[in-house]
Design a protein that fits this description.
Layout: H1 2-17, H2 30-36, E1 39-41, E2 45-50, E3 55-60, H3 70-85, E4 91-96, H4 116-134, E5 139-144, E6 148-149, H5 151-158, E7 161-165, E8 172-173, H6 185-195, H7 197-206, H8 212-218, E9 223-225, H9 230-242, H10 246-265, H11 268-279, H12 282-299
Parallel strand pairs: 3-4, 4-5, 5-7, 6-8, 7-9
Antiparallel strand pairs: 1-2, 2-3
Bound molecules: octanoyl-coenzyme A.
The site of octanoyl-coenzyme A has 28 residues, from helix 11 and helix 12.
Organism: Channa striata
GO molecular function: delta(3)-delta(2)-enoyl-CoA isomerase activity
EC number: 5.3.3.8
Length: 300
């Protein structure tokens, strides 16, 4: 709790600082920027920033499966704000330090057996993660070096470009219906923007998890490479994207994404209320319990 409060205060400070720029670029104290240079480690996220290339690599390091807990999401948002404020940082690669898993998506334990107030706070943090990443001025590349179901897939789709390890054991997709829950409209919109309406319609209803080669075929990921080349290929891709003048690329990105972003920003509170009333229903709590038991059994 203390960690969260501290992180929230920092986040608030950074939000205030970040409000004075146009197109998301900001006026910020050089002291803060200098402190951030090179590398930063919090408990769940490690960021390495290469000043010579202007590219930061964010390593998710929250064992066992990089699930998005409230603390994880808070740390993620703080890291994003810091990077966004640093004019020298133009590109971001997101990857995992965990073997075999990019991210297992939302932490189910944050939605199971929790108070409505907690669920509301959690959902606000999920929204914030998506808003920060989808509207980022940086070139964002997901280096998907493991399985990436549900919220993990959302995070990858929210980046500009996706490179996945070509390992048939890994899977990616929005599998929410398999848990008995429903992906909210902005998850759906992000997938429609990535793979089109028809594919999203089928894949969301069935809760399909795709193998890397299937994901490439439907355009859910852009490139497959051997596992040990995911990060180097991501670095090469960012370099290519950074050859385009920032302002032209950023305005183009904003033009493509603004409508989808505005839809959530104009209805954030209602979306939180919807989530809370849905997730706290007895029937949904029962589905989550069964799913958690299934995960445990599968392990045993
Ligand atoms: N949340 C919490 N704990 C999890 C999660 C999760 N999402 N995923 C796995 N775990 C736990 C497991 O229960 C297990 O715990 P324990 O060690 O206590 O037994 C531990 O992590 C390790 O898991 P596995 O043994 O399964 O690890 P593997 O490496 O074999 O497999 C996978 C990794 C493939 C990621 C696998 O764990 C998996 O499939 N996890 C479930 C992923 C999933 O279905 N996530 C959905 C989350 S919901 C979401 O993101 C969007 C919700 C939108 C809400 C809409 C509501 C209106």
């Amino acid at each position: 709790m203390a960690l969260r409060a501290a992180l929230r205060n920092k986040c608030g400070l950074l939000s205030q600082l970040s409000s004075c720029g146009s197109h998301g670029r900001v006026c910020v104290s050089p002291v803060l920027v200098t402190q951030w240079r090179n590398s930063s480690t919090s408990s769940k996220i490690k960021v390495d920033f290469d000043q010579s290339t202007g590219v930061a690599v964010m390593h998710m390091q929250s064992p066992p499966v990089n699930s998005f807990s409230l603390d994880f999401l808070t740390e993620f948002c703080i890291s994003m704000e810091k990077l966004e404020m640093d004019k020298g940082c133009r590109g971001l690669i997101i990857t995992s330090s965990q073997p075999k898993v990019f991210s297992a998506g939302l932490d189910i334990l944050e939605m199971y057996g929790k108070s409505p107030e907690h669920c509301g706070e959690f959902w606000k943090a999920v929204q914030e993660m998506w808003l920060k990443l989808y509207s980022s001025n940086m070139v964002t590349v997901a280096a998907i070096n493991g399985s990436s179901p549900a919220g993990g897939c959302l995070m990858a789709m929210t980046c500009d470009y996706r490179i996945m390890a070509d390992n048939p054991r890994f899977s990616i997709g929005l599998n929410e219906t398999q848990l008995g829950i429903v992906a909210p409209f902005w998850f759906k919109d992000t997938m429609v923007n990535t793979v089109g309406h028809r594919t999203t319609e089928i894949s969301l209803q069935l809760g399909t998890l795709y193998s890397p080669s299937e994901a490439l075929k439907i355009g859910l990921v852009d490139q497959l490479v051997p596992e040990d080349q995911v990060l180097t290929t991501a670095t090469q891709s960012v370099t290519k994207w950074l050859a385009i003048p920032d302002h032209a690329r950023q305005i183009t990105k904003s033009m493509m994404r603004k409508q989808t972003i505005d839809k959530l920003t104009s209805s954030r509170e209602a979306d939180i209320q919807n989530f809370v009333s849905f997730i706290t229903k007895d029937s949904i709590q029962k589905s989550l319990r069964m799913y958690l038991e299934m995960l445990k059994k599968r392990r045993g």
